[in-house]
Amino acid sequence: MLQCALCNVVRETCDHLFITCRKSWKVWMGWCRMWGMGWVLPGNVKDLFAVWNEWQLGGLDGRIWRMGFFAIAWSVWKSKNKTVFQGKEWSTDQVLELARIRVATWVNAKWPREYPSALDVYRQPTIQCQLPKKGQERKGIQWDKPRYGQMKFNVDGAARGCPGPAGIGGILRDHRGEVKIIFSKLIGETDSKFAEMMAIKEAFLIFQFQDGRTITSFSSKAIPAML
Known about the structure:
Shape: globular
Domain RNase H type-1: 147-227
InterPro entries: RNase_H-like_dom_plant, RNaseH-like_sf, RNaseH_domain, RNaseH_sf
Strand content: 15-25%
Protein name: RNase H type-1 domain-containing protein
Distance between the termini: 52 Å
GO molecular function, one term: RNA-DNA hybrid ribonuclease activity
Organism: Theobroma cacao
């Protein structure tokens, strides 16, 4: 068996790569700290998945938390492959940031009415998952479907700091609201406005190969004046 590509200490198994390897373990702990908790992870992926989905968050909507499992696991796997096949250096902070971007993008794609702003989910996941009180509705931007035959790209960019580690994400939907394309990636260090412009650029590069008319939607009102 091959040694773990991340720590190069223990032979690589599924459970080691995703949980017990010190480098991937730090990604899970980083996510847990965002929620104000410490956690002793189970020793295998099957048990972690079961416990993760059964975790009670009090009065919080658990969908963002549960999506974190899939985003972290996918980000660890993708980043590990880049380390092996592209020689890219592993960065725990970057893997966690990419997982956060994926959570925000996927949650927005899955539940656009409840989570209309991927940027808000990225910045404040624990606040965004607070359930509205009885008789209240969650505030946010209402997502409107495009006309028949058109597609709509919703994009967001965010940075932790000014400048700081930044990422972009986007979702392409058709007139039925069905998701056709999702993208999310890190873009280095910059500010939020530049990150959102890079998200728009990425959308343009993608939909230039799409058939039909495409509308691009973004959260910042300052962006159109900068284009």
